Amino acid sequence: MIKHRSCFSFFLLVLLASMPAAADFDTVSPEQVGMSSERLQSLDTVLRGYVDERQLAGQVALVLRRGDIVYSTANGMQDIETGVPMREDSIFRIASQTKAITSVAIMILHERGELDISHPLRRYLPEWQDMQVAVADDNGGYSLEPARRPITLRHLLTHTAGMSYGSGPAADQWAEAGFQGWYFANRDKPIRDSIARMASLPLDEHPGERWIYGYNTDILGAVVEAVSGQNLDSFFRQEIFEPLGMNDTHFFLPESKLDRLTTVYRPAEGGGIEARPETDGMQSQGLYVEGPRMSYSGGAGLLSTAIDYARFLQMLLNGGEFNGVRLLSPKTVELMTVDHLPGMTFRDGQGFGLGFFVVNDLGARGMLGSEGEYGWGGAYHSTYWVDPAEELIVIYLTQIIPATGLDDYTKLRSGVYQAIIE
After folding, report:
1. Helical (H) or strand (E) element with 166
2. How many Å separate Cα 225 from the centre of its chain?
3. C-alpha–C-alpha distance, residues 156 and 207, integer Å
4. Average pLDDT of the chain, as a whole number
5. Beta-carbon neighbour count of residue 83 at 10 Å?
6. Which domains, ranges and CATH numbers included, belong to the chain?
7. What phi-psi label fits residue 147: left (phi over 0), alpha (psi between -120 and 50 degrees) or beta?
8. Contact assessment for residue 105 and residue 312, using Cβ atoms and an 8 Å cutoff
């Protein structure tokens, strides 16, 4: 057993030394930053198991500690049918992982004094005033009443603005208007046009009274466009992607990178997985490649790679700075990463900051991690988290929807934390 572990340690060191590390990060032996090569072997085995058992086509996982890469793996296939293997620079639809980037864009404008997150939304998007709230009755219907207070940008950042993804009491009106679900890539009009039409629909709840996951961050994307005078793609590129070196992060994929786009899978009847049909829009290669390229979803629109997203998260972990470039002040990052939901029900041991969950009671959450940890995930079964107490970043990318019966998130978390030895 000892000989086996020693061989793995040697193999891992050779592998790490030979990996093409991004210029911004060094790839080091885990022991140099207080983690165990031997213990990471179990994580490697577990992740590969999901591919071997055909629960996932493939995955990319990346772990950084103290600013260095200690674990990076690309398992399985980017596309099973064509035999394309997964690569560390494979490109994934990151869906709601876009929300953190849009939240940072809002805070950049807040720091510059071009907006204030305490201001009402109607100050920036005038259509969003005199809002109505749909109140369900006992007969399966609903009545409308005026909202008790205006929606603020902070409500949107914390998902307390009162709207879902069109599934509330007035779901009939949201469906008739074409707003149910989080997908915008197929629309042939700018996102601001869609958000302006959305303003006429009833809210699910009075602003500031309940956490409801929904179109909040797409609305913030329209605010960024209105305040900056740029479309969201241009603002992200100029203010976030280029400064951080996120050269493989896009709303719509350039044709030259199509060979790196992962295929989306789904559970197959009788077991295993199968590729989603090409006609399945958001769930296949779909319109992220061939769409109108006009509607930039701040809530769920981006494609990216593990290393690009690591640059973004390392900036947050560093207090707003990465590789000599400062996007935000440390105090702004501090505000983003504390709980803004006092007294509201969210999840056991967790609150919500300005764009992601925040762990505030480790015992109540009941899983490995740290208080102060923050993160989120995406609809295609990707996830990330940042643990400031451990100077740790974890990014996990795969493409399956729905992710029925998978427990890889918890196994990933256990595998990472059990490898920390100091």
Report:
1. none
2. 20
3. 9
4. 93
5. 8
6. 21-100+234-417 (3.40.710.10), 114-229 (no CATH)
7. beta
8. no
